Fold this protein.
Amino acid sequence: MFIYLDKDSFLHHLHPVTKIVGLILLFIWAMVFNHPLYLSIIFVIVFFLSLLAKSLANLKKFWILLIILAFFSTLLWSFFLRGPSRLFKLGFIQISKESFLYGLAMGIRIDTMIISGIIFLSSTRTEDFTQGLSSLGLPFPVSFALSLSFRLVPTFAVTSSTIIQAQKSRGLDLESGRLLKRIRKHIPLFVPILIHAIRNTDLLAMALESKGFGFKKKRTYYLQFRSTWKDWLSIAILAGLIGFSFYIRLNGYGMIFHRI
Amino acid sequence: MKAIEVDTLSFTYKGGPKKALDGIKFEQEQGEMVVLMGHTGAGKSTFSRCLNRLIPHFHKGNYSGEIRILGNSIRDKRVYDLVGQIGLVFQDFESQLFSTNVELEVAFGPENLCLSREEIKRRVDESLQLVRLKGFERREPASLSGGEKQRLAIASILAIKPKIVVMDEPTTDLDPQGKLEIFSVAKILKSEGYTILFIEHETEAILEADKIVIVDRGKVVTEGKPYQILKDVELLENHGIRPPQIAKLLKEINEPTISFNLDEALKVFQKRDWKISDEKYTALLKKEEEQHIGYGKKIIEVKDLEYFYPENIKALDGISLDIQEGEFLAIIGQNGSGKTTLVKHFNGLLKPSKGKVRVAGEDTKRKQVSELGKIVGYVFQNPDHQIFANTVEEEVAFGPGNLGISKENISRFVEEALKEVGLEGYEGCDPFSLTKGERQRVAIASILSARPQVLILDEPTTGLDYRQQKSVMELLKSLNGKGHTIIIITHSLWVVAEYAKRVLVLHQGKIILDGSPRRVFSQEEKLADSFLRLPEIIRLSNRMERTLLSVDEFKYCLER
């Protein structure tokens, strides 16, 4: 159910701060180019990272989503952008080579970012995440709440699916009808989900208070992280790659459209 | 020194209609185990939350009275100040657990107390040892069974080393095995010298207690030794507690011996030379056989059903069964045995991976859930997972509206459904303002209003007190009498014994027993393999080589 995989890998052993910074760097890196070829190289490197983090099992759960995103991105950008070399025209619909390549690039970019996120969550416990955010200067309650929200998503998903089943059993049909009507049809789902969420948050807050949460400024962290040369090296390599990427981009490589 | 002293404590929730606590007085010695009992809504949870200042700090309201914990007034204390003295375990263990693994969950409290890592490690080990979860350190809480989760919640409190542990209905959401696990943990804690306040419905918990306190309408009604309280069948029934069956039987046949114990009861019977009448027992059996005559045509047919969850987890393994119109079927088995997965096939929420399910002769693979909803109604376990409307009437009209029933008929069906569940006059009420028992009835009415032939209910009695449980079951009985086919999933074997006409025992996705409750419950050992422990009265009769399902049956058959 939960994304974290309790494995022993290079990434599992990195300092959480390294992983948070690394994740941000990967996001930045994916933003540097908009050419599918250049993005593919980043994609392959990120994919290699997922092997390194032993998180392939999680990628498998999401591969359909990844393909759908890449497909629709390619399709939509192809229609909406206009480029000089037209490939195809039918009435007002036209596709150019540039718009197609740009769409493909955006698909690869989204997938790269999602995979980076999955790698992060697969190799980082919520507690590591909390601690990482704290050592970056965020107050503990804020770091705790941020990382907890990731933790609660799957739990929430389970309840939502129960509620959907309960209402489907009462004949709720979400598929038919016009948009407005369909939105209205979701009320029987939203209300119980919302009430469940409020009730749960309330209970959780009580349980936390009963365990002494949030009263003292200081607290012990049971888990101990030390940054090693591996952390510094990882960040250095990533930063280096991004620096190099910026350099070649500024020299006019890796771009389909220059203005976007 | 007393562990807990409460003097005329009153509390009204902000915006609440009446006093949740009304001048309650209470005392508990150190090292004692006290069990607090009473109706749902009697004020038990409110009381427990006052003890660690969640009330009035977390829940606001009108508070008056005095509490002393370990001799000190807590008037000026915050929740945090009491953390090392009193620990609270809640009923809903799911929402108490939030860590990635068992070890970190237990470490959370001590971390907040700024203890050293070595001390935290020591406390984690100790606490896990106490609840018998050593070796589970790296396990993900979500992967644990219900009983294990609740034990983990208890360990996470023990790690803070409170002197007093308060448990607010920790076993309500657990299956029978989970309940036993919690009772044995309570026993361990008591022997370790903890002061324990246990809020509980189950009578098993009581026998270990030093004192029982019964609460009603925010006040203590009576208190005493377990023995004194449990023998008072009337008192228990009046306060939503199911009396021990053996005590009830002895009382009803005017036997002066007071006992809850099977062996003692047997001795009494031997001494007095009381036996089970063959003639009357045969009459019972005959009546049971005649039941089948009243059944109609096959409404649900299941053939060689297999079901796989993603990642090839086999949940159902070759299930075949037929259900006829007019049956009252109970499905029992441990959590994870496939009960819910099976019944979700009956209204098409799940479709078979292999095999066939037919409802009213039609293959469910070719039908939508919304179409099958006209024949098979499904009441989910938690009424709050389906209630959404502003009024009870709107809620109950939702199902038939979806199923395309005409306007005039809907209002008639709604009216009749509400009448059926005893909620006439509630049409305009906000369903969220009702009690859990009433919300359960709204949920049943909202399914009933679509007039399905078959009614499925997933754990209809969970979270209700004895009085509410009985009234829901009586409702189902009367619906069954009017021709509805009833299918329930339950952990309550006394419910099965007293209400069902047929029982199905599932174990690891297979049917291991199928038959009348009398036939199935005569196989005590086979049931014990699935951690199903029969009610006392049935075990007593089994020892006398007959199977009697209720106190009434026993009384009827006993030859004196």
